[in-house]
Design a protein that fits this description.
117 residues, mainly beta, three-stranded antiparallel beta sheet, 7 strands, 9% helix, globular, binds zinc ion
């Protein structure tokens, strides 16, 4: 099994905002993941699902699956070192069909050793 660790989103995500009402972290325009291994910035989209099935299932096993209308996952690879990353957001509908995304956790999979560090 690959080793998977969870990290607070404020340590890994650039361009976060704060909710004016609650002070919670908030995804604003152009969220980016800052990789602790290679310092690369990887832009991602809410709901992105660009991991292989194997990596996605490994992350599902630790983080739980998406609960529609409650959580959203963004799954992607660091664009330089290729580590698999999942950003978990809590979804808040604040008006009809208008949503806020509060990042709650970042899951990171250790690279398998095939990539130079
Ligand atoms: Zn990286």
């Amino acid at each position: 099994m690959p080793s998977i660790v969870k990290t607070p989103p404020e340590l890994r995500l650039a361009n976060l905002g704060h909710d004016r009402d609650t002070g919670e972290l908030l995804i604003v325009n152009l969220p980016k993941y800052v990789c602790p291994e290679c310092d690369a910035l990887t832009p991602f989209a809410i709901g992105e699902a660009s991991l292989s099935e194997t990596d996605r299932k490994a992350l599902d096993a630790v983080s739980g699956e998406v609960k529609p209308y409650e959580t959203e996952h963004s799954d992607f690879y660091c664009r330089v070192c290729g580590r698999a990353v999942r950003v978990v957001c809590r979804v808040h509908e604040f008006a009809m069909s208008a949503y806020k995304y509060h990042p709650t956790l970042v899951w990171e999979m250790a690279t398998d050793g095939s990539v130079d560090r």
